[in-house]
Structures are given as structure tokens and as C-alpha cells.
Design brief:
By secondary structure, this protein is an alpha/beta fold. The chain has one domain (2-193): Ribonuclease H-like superfamily/Ribonuclease H (Nucleotidyltransferase, domain 5), CATH 3.30.420. The chain contains 7 helices and 6 strands. The protein has a 6-stranded mixed sheet, sandwiched between helices. α2 links the parallel β5 and β6. The radius of gyration is 16 Å and the shape is globular.
Length: 203
């Protein structure tokens, strides 16, 4: 795995193709309180591109253009959080979207373990560490261990999507998954508007 770290924004000439794995690192899990610090991306070629954001301005036009591009499919694991946090701090509406966690819940109904580590272990035979998930992502200089952790969060998403697509097709749930992915921006908007844990469709 190769890791490329950028301060502030992606390079002008970087082409990541039309299917990009994306993840974010923040100072916590409450968007109204905990700022976005890092966005990591991979085109599935063994390279992780990590953007350490300038939190004084969030001036990153190249990153924002990529995230908002209708021609680039963005793969997330738990897209609901990532698209909400990117909308708040970067001001972008992300799409189109594929969420491996949502796909796992639709395809792997034999388990309640849908975290990235569990999905990678079962479907890819890969062990990833979550040790640095809770660390200071707002530090001026990120540790090598943090960069490796961030890279692992996007490095396997293309392969995971391929495995989950096979399962979704096998169980006849691919069209349902696509509808769920299309709904995720609205689910994230409801989260940010004050309905994070309420099912408004419930009786």
C-alpha cells in the first residue's frame, strides 16, 4: 500500500477515475461539535490519497469537485455519517453513492456484525486494525500509524463492493440496495436537521 498525504487539497492533476473509495476522520461523532479533519480516497489501485484539511477555511476546490461530481461513484462504509459531515464542513452534496455497510445489512442477514473490520475479515480474508480510530485527527502532524489506519479505511472498499454486489445479485436485492443508496443523502439531511435516531415513518 502506498500513502500520499496532501495538505489542504488534492493536486490539480490527480485523476482518480470514476469509482473512488472515500472516508473521513473527525474529532468525534457529533457533526455540530466535532469538525472534519481528514478525507481519504482511493481508486482501488493500491494508493491511498489522504487530504489533511485546512480547518480555518476548508478551501479545497479539487476535493469538493470530486465529491460532488455526478460522474464519479463514491464508495463509503457508513455513508450516512460521511456525507453529512462533508455537507456541513465542505458544503458539498455528494453523489452518486455506494455504501458497503448498507449493502452488508441487506446481503449479510445471517449476522449483526457489519463493521468494516468484520466485513473485510469474512469477505476478503483481511484483518484490519481499528486501534487509531479514536485519536487526535486535528493534530498538526499526523502519525504514520494514523495515516496507515486512514488508508486501510478506503484501501479495501472496491473489493468489498464487488463481493457484496455478488451477494446482492444472488439474493435479488440489488435494486433495493440502489434505492437505499439514493435515499442516504436525505437520511443524512434528517440527521443534521434533528432526527438522527427517530424513524419518522413509524406509526
Amino acid at each position: 500500500m502506498t500513502i500520499e498525504l496532501y495538505k489542504g487539497d488534492l493536486p490539480d492533476d490527480l485523476d482518480l477515475g470514476n469509482v473512488v473509495a472515500v472516508d473521513t476522520e473527525t474529532l468525534g461523532l457529533i457533526p455540530s461539535r466535532d469538525p472534519l479533519c481528514v478525507v481519504q480516497l482511493s481508486s482501488g489501485d493500491g494508493i491511498a490519497h489522504i487530504v489533511q484539511l485546512d480547518r480555518s477555511s476548508y478551501d479545497c476546490p479539487n476535493l469538493k469537485k470530486l465529491l460532488a461530481s455526478p460522474d464519479v461513484l463514491k464508495i463509503f462504509h457508513f455513508a450516512r455519517f460521511d456525507i453529512a459531515i462533508c455537507n456541513k464542513y465542505l458544503g458539498v452534496d455528494i453523489g452518486p453513492i455506494y455504501c458497503t455497510r448498507t449493502a452488508s445489512k441487506l446481503a449479510r442477514t445471517y449476522t449483526d456484525r457489519h463493521g468494516l473490520r468484520e466485513c473485510c475479515r469474512e469477505l476478503l480474508g483481511v484483518e484490519i486494525s481499528k486501534q487509531y480510530q479514536s485519536s487526535d485527527w486535528g493534530a498538526d502532524e499526523l502519525k504514520p500509524e494514523q495515516l496507515k489506519y486512514a488508508a486501510n479505511d478506503v484501501y479495501h472498499l472496491h473489493a468489498l463492493m464487488a463481493k457484496l454486489n455478488m451477494m446482492l445479485e444472488r439474493e435479488g436485492r440489488m435494486e433495493l440496495a440502489k434505492k437505499c443508496f439514493a435515499f442516504l443523502p436525505l437520511r443524512a439531511e434528517l440527521d443534521m436537521a434533528g432526527w438522527p435516531n427517530i424513524d419518522i415513518f413509524e406509526h
